[in-house]
Amino acid sequence: MKFASVKTILIMIAVTVLGLYALDYWKNPQLWHRGVAVAMAGSEAGPRLTLWMNHLCCTGCQDDVRKALAGAAGVDLEKATGPQQLLTQAAANQEGATLPNYGNAVVLPITDLDKLDVVAVDRALRDKGFVAGRMELSGVPHFHLEAALDHLCCGMCDRSISERMDFLKAKGQGGQLKWIESVSVEHEKKTVVAYARFLETGKTDDVVEFLSALNYLGFEPHSMRIATEEKYQHPIHTQEAPNAGGGQGPEHTH
Amino acid sequence: MGRRLVFLSAAMLTLLPVVAVYAHERFIRHDLKVPLHEQYFARQPGMFLGMQSDMLRIATVSCVLLLIFLVIFFFRQNLDVFIETRLLAGFGGRSQRALHHLACFLTDKPVRLPWFKTVSEWAVVLFIRSPALVLMYSATNDSLVMPSYPLEPTSAIYYKYIQVFLAILMLTQTALPLAGALVVGTWIYLWRWGWMVAADALPVLTVAVVYLTSPWQSHRVAITELNEKQVRWVRLVLGFGFFALGWLKIYNYHLTAGVADNYPGVMDDPMIGFFAMGTNPLFRRENWIVAFAYAEVLSGFMLMTGVFTRVWGSMMIWIFTKLMLVTFGFEEIPHIYPIAATMVVVFSNKLGSEFSFVERSQQSAAREGRTLRRIVTVGAASLAIAAVTVYALLYAISFIDRSHLWQGGLT
User: Fold this and answer.
1) For residue A30, what pLDDT is reported?
2) What is the spatial distance between Cα B122 and Cα A161, in angstroms, rounded to a whole number?
3) How far is A123 from chain B (nearest CA, A)?
């Protein structure tokens, strides 16, 4: 009986490892160059909202996405860039048509931050049958997100957001919500405010994470705006009056 | 296998971190539903060894249990003589033979029974082929090796075909050294997704040991028995895998708690309850995590070092079977593989121990009539082994802040 020598075994293992890595590198370039892509997207001047769609493969998809975003306020659809490596609808229909990834990104220059409503963009896409996997904001060094809710009836509602948001941040080892410095609940205005950390040039913050976090906590905001004006970050100085009547004032969490 | 990132983006969308990590937990839902008392697992100034008292209590129970098992094991020859000459002397015929076989089974000695040998042969056949079932199951679920490592759609088809190719080698027992190299290579590739993923997949290396040491013409021979070296390596790798997974349960405690949140029934296990006896019920989930981890650490350690291999192996088979058939159901079907691996060890008549030198030293002292030296040798060795095994890593881990670890723990 012939057995494999140690040298042969080591060679076979090495070939297997190299083969698997090579296959991964060849077929999944998007996983190996994510950082570069994000940096390139973010290096362009001005505030931008990059919509990463997990499905956006051909010109047919692109047309529908553009139609969906036609009414979106605060963004310049004419100057939108991407998606890259798009097939024509006819080419995509052909048997054997392939792309390195079914997903793609649309980069929207933001013309008016005050008018941009993230929830409206999300709904517009969903109404056309699309979902933005990520909405990455870039080019805005200091901002906070203001999520307006229809329901925020009691102190328990307030606390469930502020307390459980900490919990979600702690669980986000993949980096989710780490960009949020603190969350404040403004009961009277039925608004949840997420203060973002300083956003460096070339970096992005995925605002969908905050939207999903609120959904996970059981709340559906009817709008989410990106604000840049200075706003109190430590509401402890301002909460005396509203909070006096049963703890329904602004809650703050770090 | 950008598969993990697919998973990550899905988790990002929902913020229900449903990723992956750890032995059987990998195959099932493990999203945390209620926050844990994070301070329980953190350093606690002023406490003995700087650790939470309930955690130390569970560790001490484990240490005492291990100590008792080690002492009994090191005196097993003397116990055997006592059982054979004193206890069984009064019995005759069948009863005596049955009890003799039972004693041999419990003390890791060869069991000379035809049915035992048949089961042993069948276990080897199952062990060599069962990884193929797991691979096929993973391939049909668009994942690599384990159903919880989802494949990236752009490359899934290639990895699925590779798995099917490997499964064919295994099922037909063809070129097993190549199959072994592919298994080891795939395991090394898993390091791309982090050390915890690789640690989680450690048990898959067990079968690679057998494949790599099989002949190239493996398809021509009936492999129904493993030699002493193969059994030793299977025992070492399998035992170390579970030993490591036990510690990972404490290291990434969110994941372990997530399993209990989804399957509360697992918290009612009497064996784990034994480890957690006397602890504060306020920390029920936290205590369960540590007790569960220690149950696995001790099982893995005993298996790895060859101390009452069959006793602990049998318990593991029972637990895995229960998890697969009762607690978690079909999602745990890949556990056919560790069950088969453990069966190979339990039904082998070529078991050895990594601590046989303690036994030999004790027996040498017995022949010289040095009773005190025997007791001191066994007592000191058992105490040192038990203390280092149970406390050393727990103490070291307590210095690491794991509160930020995601339940997936894959990054």
Assistant:
1) 61
2) 57
3) 15
